[in-house]
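Figure 2 data, in text form.
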Amino acid sequence: MAIRELGTEALYHACDPKGFSFDSTAEMQELKRIIGQPRAVEALRFGVEIAREGYNVFAVGQPGTGKHSLICKFLQEKAETVPVPPDICYVNNFAEPHKPRVLRMPPGRGRELAQGMERLIEDGRNALKSAFENEEYQNRARGITQEFQERQQQAMEELQKRTQEKGMTLFKTPMGLAFAPVKEGNILPPEEFGKLPEEERKRVEQDVQSLQEGAQKLFQKIPAWERELREKMKSLNKEVSTLAVGPLLQELRDKFQEITEVVDFLQDVEKDIIENLQDLLPREAPPQQPGAPGPQQDSPQTRKYRVNVLVDNSKCKGGPVVFEDNPTYQNLMGRIEHLAHMGTLLTDFNMIRAGAFHRANGGFLVLDAAKVLMQPLSWEGLKRALRGKKIKIESLGELYGMISTASLEP
C-alpha cells in the first residue's frame, strides 16, 4: 500500500470556541459520572455490593487508564453510605502486661477516654498528695504507729519488771538481749558468780533461762504486730485513696457506663492505684528548665494508666478509604516501637502503632498488588489477616526467628 503524506490540517481536530457555553473551564461543574468505562463501573459496583466474607475486587488494566482514580472515587462515594466504624484503643492489661487489652468504642469516645485518663492522672496525683498531707490522715497514721510502739514498749517493760523481780538486769549485746545477776546495783562478775553456792547458781541459771524464753516469745510476737501495723496502714491508705480518687473515677464510669469493657478497665485502674500509692504520689525533684517536661510527666508509673488511641474515627463521615502506597508488612499490620533507655530498648502498649488494616477496618483498603508481592511477607500476612479475621502485630526479626526477646503480644 502506498504511503501518503498528511498535511497539517489532518493532524489535529479543531474545536470552535463559539460552541462552548463558558468562558473558562473553572466555570464548569464537577462531573459526577465516569466516562467511557460502563463495564468497569458496573463490575466494581457489583463486587463492592457483595457483603460476604472472602470477596475482594481485583482491577487489572494498562497503566494510565485511570484504574486508581476510578476505584478511589467510587469507593469514596460508597463509603459515605457505610456506618462509621468504632475507635480502636489499647490499654494496659494489669494481669498480663505483655498482652495489652483492646477496647472498641463508638467513634470519638476513644479520644474522650484518653483525655479523661490524662486528667485523672494529673488530678488524681494532686488529690492523693493533698489527702496524705491532710492533718487528719497524719493523726490517724501516727495513732496506728504509736499503738504498735506502745505495745512493744509495754512488753519490754513487763520483761524488765520480771527481770528486776528476780534480782537481775537486762542489757543489749550484739547477739541480742542478755540477762545477768546483780549485786548492790552492779552486774555480778563471772568469778564472783562462780563462788556462789551451787544451789544459788542453779536458781540463777533457771531464772536466766526463763527470762530468755520470755524474751524469745516477745520477739516472736513482734513480726505479727508489724504485720498488723502494715495491714492497718494499708487499710487506712485504701480508705483515704478511695475517697481522693474515687470521685474522679466515678465521673469516668458515669460517662462510659454503657461500655462494659471501659468500666472493667477503670475498676482495674482503681485497684492498681490503691496497691501502688507510693509510685503515684509526687516526689520532690530538682528545679526544671522553663518549658521542660516534669520528671514524672511520662514515667512508667503513670504511662500504664493511659489510653493508646490506635484508630480515631471521630472525624469520619462514613467508612474509611485507605490507600497504602508502600505496603510493607509493618505498614499493613502495624508495628511496635521501642525507646532506647540506659542501653536497652523498652516498649509498652503506648508504643503500638496502627497499620493500614487497622485504619481501613470497617471500610475499604486499596493496594497495588504488584507492590504487595514485592514486599517480604506482605502477601502472606494479608491472606492470614483476612482468613483469620485477626491482625497480629509482629516484628520481622521475630517472624524470621532472628531475635527472641520478651515483647508485647497485641
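Caption note: The longest strand covers residues 176-183.
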